[in-house]
Write a structure and sequence with these properties.
234 residues; alpha/beta; seven-stranded parallel β-sheet
Amino acid sequence: MTYKDLDIESKRKYYSLLCDIITQERRFNLEKVIDLRTEHFVPVIENIHKAQNASAVLRTCDCLGLQEVRVVENNNKFAVTDDISLGANKWLNIKKYNTFENNTKRCFDDLRSEGYKIIATMPHDNDINLQDIDITQKTAIVFGSEVDGISKEAIDNADCFMKIPMYGFTESFNISVSAAITLHYLTDKLRQSNIPWQLSEEKRLNTLIHWALESITTKDKIAKELLNRVISMK
């Protein structure tokens, strides 16, 4: 059992106990950032093989307030370079798909079950420009590998396709640049809208607890001790 299995009230108590351990300054920073987090847009990183690109995308997601990232590992293992990510991965919820032959479809099925529309970033006969994406619906944005781009499985299962307008001779942006341009535009547009984009109370609590534990050196020991204390309060 972990804190994620607790009910809402118990999670509140758990977080309150953690706040007695971390500094007030840390708590203030956590609660300031959590109010700016969103899962309205979820980046999907499919089969990236260069650690520097994967790390740059995670850093972009953290900076833009995107809390969740889905990672599909088909042929390439997802790796992070700390001097590029600057620890961004520990503040994000990263869900990996690497145990099934059809990892991409499994990822897409999960996203659809959670109400997400899936947009693949690639030129296509029926593509739309980045500026024309409808942001009212929760959306997953798929970014493919550096060499092969988005897989056939992703193409066959995406709801639609998006391209970033370009005006030069080069055919495409680097994956990390493409992600940065796309996600910055969409999150900026989202924050200027009236769409309810902030985390639900339960996701907010789960994230705050995770962040608070990441701030504690002996987090594994503390997590177990506090979980036992919360359970004993019932």
